[in-house]
């Protein structure tokens, strides 16, 4: 295992311990709003600080892109310059689930080298499930190699979505309406990083998301690719990390999902 991946796992487990302790006493949790239906807690911040502390101690010359604290430039990095190494961190994806005691949330840590993600860790502390990937080295769940599902029939596919209307009634004019209505069933889990990890392990056959952030996508995107899946924007191109508009699925499901959107 790559030493940088080992360090990321150590950081994820330390943050997971903070989250698990807090989950035992949610009534004492301090919750603030960052925007409509967008929450942050002191646990998000504490978990992020723990992750950055582990990584910065091991690699003081690396930069960071974190959901809560934003960009921290690497040593010698100029504003606007791509860092040689940058850690992309979401300390608690699924905060709304967490504050309700709904155990579907995860920690996401990715390492980008010159803008290309090379290492990925997603850790689900409530289930003690650790998803990892190194570029060119495959995807793993708790040290067991995983692959995307072998599903070939769209009408039998289980999809997940983070798109306008997927949390409630969706307009029939939505470009996603037909795509999601013609599969076997669609879910909205409330944690994009877990949804991508579940595509990588075959628990989901595909995922569609809109207006997501790099920390939502970096680690999960590498997991999907290393598990044999495809990931792209709504034109099938590779701008998804910049636009936040993403399809991730098995190769056969990806083609069919893309077809629905382009129709």
Question: What's the gist of this structure?
Answer:
The protein has helices spanning 3-23, 42-58, 95-99, 177-181, 192-201, 214-226, 240-243, 251-262, and strands at residues 31-35, 38-41, 63-66, 70-72, 85-93, 106-113, 116-124, 129-134, 139-141, 144-146, 158-162, 185-187, 206-209, 230-232, 246-249. It is α+β, with helices and mostly antiparallel strands and 263 residues long.
Provide the number of structural domains. Answer: 2
| Largest sheet: number of strands, sense, barrel closure | 8 strands, mixed
CATH superfamily of the largest domain: Fructose-1,6-Bisphosphatase, subunit A, domain 1
CATH topology assignment of the largest domain: Fructose-1,6-Bisphosphatase, Chain A, domain 1
Sequence of strands across the biggest β-sheet: 4-3-5-6-7-8-9-10
Encode the helix/strand succession as letters: HEEHEEEHEEEEEEHEHEHEHEH
> What distance separates the N and C termini?
43 Å
**Helix-strand makeup class:** alpha+beta
Helical proportion, percent range? 25-40%
Average of pLDDT: 90
Low-confidence stretches: none
Our count of helices gives: 8
The CATH architecture category of the largest domain equals 2-Layer Sandwich
What does the overall shape look like? globular
């Amino acid at each position: 295992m790559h030493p940088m991946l080992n360090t990321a796992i150590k950081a994820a487990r330390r943050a997971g311990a903070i989250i698990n302790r807090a989950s035992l006493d949610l009534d004492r949790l301090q919750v603030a709003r960052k925007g409509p239906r967008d929450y942050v807690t002191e646990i998000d911040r504490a978990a992020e600080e723990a992750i950055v502390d582990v990584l910065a101690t091991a690699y003081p010359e690396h930069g960071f892109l974190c959901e809560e604290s934003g960009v921290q430039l690497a040593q010698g990095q100029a504003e606007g310059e791509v860092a040689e190494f940058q850690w992309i961190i979401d300390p608690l994806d699924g905060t709304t689930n967490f504050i309700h005691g709904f155990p579907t949330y995860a920690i996401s840590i990715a390492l980008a080298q010159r803008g290309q993600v090379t290492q990925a860790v997603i850790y689900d502390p409530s289930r003690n499930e650790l998803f990892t990937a190194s570029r060119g080295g495959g995807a793993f769940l708790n040290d067991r190699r995983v692959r995307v599902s072998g599903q070939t029939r769209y009408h039998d596919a289980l999809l997940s979505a983070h798109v306008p209307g997927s949390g409630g009634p969706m307009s029939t004019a939505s470009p996603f309406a037909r795509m999601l209505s013609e599969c076997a069933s669609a879910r909205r889990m409330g944690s994009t990083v877990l949804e991508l990890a579940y595509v990588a392990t075959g628990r989901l056959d595909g995922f569609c998301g809109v207006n997501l952030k790099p920390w939502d996508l970096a680690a999960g995107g590498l997991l999907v690719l290393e598990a044999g899946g495809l990931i792209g924007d709504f034109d099938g191109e590779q701008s998804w990390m910049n636009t936040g508009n993403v399809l991730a699925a098995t190769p056969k499901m990806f083609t069919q999902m893309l077809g629905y959107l382009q129709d």
